Amino acid sequence: MPTHEHDRREPGPNGAEEIDTSHGYERSDVRASGIVVFLTALAVFVAVAGGLSYGIGKFINTRMAREDGPKSKWAAPVDVRPLGNMPSSPELKDKMEELTQRFPTPRLQTDDGNQEIADLHAKEDLLLEHYSWVDREQGKVRIPIERAMELIARGGLPVAPQVEHAPPMTGDRAPVATAPLTNGFARTGFEQDEAQAIGTRRPEQQK
How many angstroms separate the CA atoms of 120 and 127, rounded? Predict the structure, then answer.
């Protein structure tokens, strides 16, 4: 039977105490006094913390009620749960759908923007490659860019009158304009892939 008596310790050859292990098991029990003290302190701490929290909340609620003033029909809380859900209005629903369909720019992109760039270039191609009216009343017509280039190559551009400039100062040089490497327009990779896919589908459809 376990007891609270410690095992008999005998000094060893080096002067240190050695535990008697002749019984083959621990003869002493765990002391419960430390556990009891810990649980008692924990209970006291929880009680004190709960009392402080309740007191602080009571003080804050009392002060807020004092600042709000006396209760009236305008300040009294109303329980709206018995009212239930409000019926939906078909006119409001149609208006919301219309606003959603005509949402002003900038709109949220549904993809990474490749399709929007392709649509923009398609609109530009319609203006650059076809005839269209600029002002029907004045008879102004927008011509294709290829036709415009032919007319300019045949007749040239109007030459502006020579502008007299003051002689350059010492160390100044006349500005030299360099031709750009490109015309500033390039198809995106998405458009090139789309054009290649269309080109491969056409021979298959012809077969």
Answer: 11
- Find all residues with CB under 8 Å of 7, minimum gap 6, and list them: 19, 20, 23, 26, 27, 28
**pLDDT tens-place values along the chain, 207 residues long:** 444 444 455 555 555 566 667 777 777 777 788 889 999 999 999 999 999 999 999 999 888 888 877 777 676 666 777 777 666 777 777 777 776 676 666 767 666 667 778 888 888 888 888 888 888 888 888 888 888 888 888 888 777 777 777 777 777 777 776 666 556 666 777 777 887 777 776 666 666
Measuring CA to CA, which residue among 4, 48, 58 is closest to residue 26?
Answer: 4
Q: Are 109 and 116 in contact (CB under 8 A)?
A: yes
Both structure tokens of 108: 């949220």
Nearest Cα residue to 139 out of 131, 129, 147: 131
CB 127 within 8 A of CB 142: yes
Q: Is 0.70 surpassed by the pTM of this model? A: no
Count of alpha carbons within 13 Å of 207, Cβ hemisphere only? Answer: 4
Percent of the chain that is helix, strand, coil (3-state, to 5): 45, 5, 45
